[in-house]
Each structure stands twice: as structure tokens, then as C-alpha cells.
User: Which sequence fits this backbone?
């Protein structure tokens, strides 16, 4: 296996508990995101990384219903949990993709673009969020397994352990970085789900776009937002 995608998800969000299983057009939000990731062509396997707390049993149950691998680990040491998910595979991946479960508008085209740049550049770490020009909520991070292993061994601060990848991009003298840069400056747009208003925004996007085109992409969301005055203005559409 060359490329493993790991999707982090937990129920114990501070601002919107249980958000990853909130209803989005009749299915759990996490299942909607998994549908989108499954369309990416440059990943070989997808696994869910959740915590070993009882509160996250519903996520494990959802994964079982979808016949999707789920690896469980520490709630607060997310880096350790993420690394355990990478190591739990039958074959060690050469590269690992990091995605988070609060981004149900994840775009498979962007996942593939980040992976392609990562492989072509030979970078240790590649992302479309090093310079934020894509909407918040479309973040994709790719890293060499060996770089992830170094982070697991050496990352010491709470921020580095909770957010997995800061140890890598905070040491550009050690790790080669590559950045997928969007053509337009769209970083002020907010498409991630942290607050109730964000969830309502995503639910409305799905209601508008999914019945017409279940494979809608991020450009379709942007066109929807830009063509409807005030769409997402209640915090969901813009920071």
C-alpha cells in the first residue's frame, strides 16, 4: 500500500458535541464525508481514527455498518492515535493523508491534487493549507510515513500532540514542505463545522446540490455561495 488516508473523528467536540453524526440529508455527517473521500482516486485505503472512550462507540458502530476500518486510541493525544492508525494496517503505508471529521465538504479532487503534488515533489509534508487560499474545511495534509514517525517520537507540546502535524511544518529546515496554492484568495470562507450555524450551512448546501448532483465539488459550493446573496452569512459561509 502506498497511500493511506486517515480520517479523524470524535463525538466530544467542545462547541458542538456529536456533530460528526449529525443528520445531513438523511445520513450522518461523517458518512457523507466518507462518501466524498471514497471518490478520491489517489488513495489506496481509508481508515477512521477515533478515541477509545465509550462516547465514541457510535463512530465505531457506524464504521462497522459501512465495513470500514476503525482504529481507536487516546482521546487527547491525537498524534498517538493517528500514528497507531497508520501502524495498524496490514502493510505499512509509504504516505499518509490526514483528514478531519468536521469537514463534510471535503473534495476528492483536492485530495488527489495534494497527493499528486506530494508524490511529484518528493516532499516530507504537503498541504493546501500552509498558505490558506482554499475555504476552511477543504484542508488536506499528506506526509511521508517516516516524517509522521519522527513527529510521534519527538513532538512534545500539547499543540503538536493534539493537532498531529505542527511538528512537521514548524521545522522546515528539517522537513521538505510543499504547498498546493489556490488560484483565488478564498481563505476567509468557512466551510468547516464547529458551531450550529456551520452545520446549518452544510445542511443547506447538501439540500441544494446533492439531489441534483451527488458528486458536487467545491467549485459548485462556491458558485452556490456567490450566486445567493447572504448564503451562509450566519457564520457558515464566511469567517
Assistant:
Amino acid at each position: 500500500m502506498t497511500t493511506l488516508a486517515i480520517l479523524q473523528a470524535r463525538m466530544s467536540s467542545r462547541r458542538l458535541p456529536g456533530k460528526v453524526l449529525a443528520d445531513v440529508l438523511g445520513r450522518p455527517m461523517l458518512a457523507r464525508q466518507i462518501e466524498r473521500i471514497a471518490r478520491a482516486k489517489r488513495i489506496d485505503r481509508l481508515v477512521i481514527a477515533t478515541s477509545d472512550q465509550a462516547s465514541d462507540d457510535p463512530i465505531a458502530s457506524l464504521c462497522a455498518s459501512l465495513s470500514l476500518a476503525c482504529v481507536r486510541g487516546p482521546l487527547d493525544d491525537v498524534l498517538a492515535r493517528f500514528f497507531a492508525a497508520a501502524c495498524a494496517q496490514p502493510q505499512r503505508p509509504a504516505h499518509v493523508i490526514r483528514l478531519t471529521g468536521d469537514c463534510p465538504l471535503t473534495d476528492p479532487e483536492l485530495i488527489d491534487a495534494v497527493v499528486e503534488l506530494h508524490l511529484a515533489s518528493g516532499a516530507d509534508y504537503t498541504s493546501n493549507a500552509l498558505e490558506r487560499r482554499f475555504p476552511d474545511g477543504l484542508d488536506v495534509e499528506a506526509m511521508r510515513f517516516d516524517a509522521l514517525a519522527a513527529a510521534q517520537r519527538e513532538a512534545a507540546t500539547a499543540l503538536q500532540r493534539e493537532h498531529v502535524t505542527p511538528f512537521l511544518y514548524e521545522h522546515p529546515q528539517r522537513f521538505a514542505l510543499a504547498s498546493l496554492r489556490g488560484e483565488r484568495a478564498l481563505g476567509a470562507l468557512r466551510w468547516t463545522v464547529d458551531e450550529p450555524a456551520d452545520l446549518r450551512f452544510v445542511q443547506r448546501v447538501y439540500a441544494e446540490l446533492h439531489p441534483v448532483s451527488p458528486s458536487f465539488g467545491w467549485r459548485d459550493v462556491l458558485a452556490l455561495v456567490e450566486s445567493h446573496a447572504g448564503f451562509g452569512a450566519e457564520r457558515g459561509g464566511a469567517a
Observations:
- The chain has one domain: 3-187.
- The two ends are 38 Å apart (CA to CA).
- Strands lie at 3-8, 23-24, 27-28, 45-51, 70-73, 95-100, 125-127, 141-144, 177-179.
